[in-house]
Amino acid sequence: MLRTLVFIGVGSFIGGVARYLFSRFIQFHAATAFPWGTMTVNIVGCFLIGIIYGLCDRSFIMNNDLRLFLTVGLCGGFTTFSTFIHENYMFLDEKNCLNAILYSMLSLGLGLFLARLGHILVRMCLS
């Protein structure tokens, strides 16, 4: 059990640092108050977790420790659902319903699409 927690903890650390750097990079280049950095991190995380679980479903190349490191640790540390919720709360608190709806719909729609695309790509490559 301790070994598993170490794998998840190290993955979360790497994912959290990657999230911070990637999100800041995107937001800096977006030059707008709209949270493009958080949204991009969330949809990229959905794509990555789709690829990882697709690999788990289609092959035996991952042991349980690696799967947990990549999914619960790395992707869990990388994606930012709590930040996403807070940013939507702030939009609603500022009476900016259009941005709250746009942000939620884009994040959910693109996230679902990219998670599915990750699975499809793995199936195509491993078939």
Q: TL;DR?
A:
With 127 residues, the chain is an all-alpha fold.
Question: How would you characterize this protein structure?
Answer:
The protein is an all-alpha fold and 127 residues long. The chain has one domain. The protein has 5 helices and no strands. The chain has helices spanning 2-30, 36-58, 64-78, 81-93, 97-126. Helix 1 (2-30) crosses helix 2 and helix 2 runs parallel beside helix 5. The longest helix has 30 residues, at 97-126. The radius of gyration is 16 Å and the shape is globular. 33% of the residues are buried.
Order of helices and strands: HHHHH
**How does the helix and strand content classify structurally?**
mainly alpha
Name the assembly state: single chain
Largest sheet: none
**Unreliable stretches covering 5 or more consecutive residues:** none
Rg calculated over all Cα atoms: 16 Å
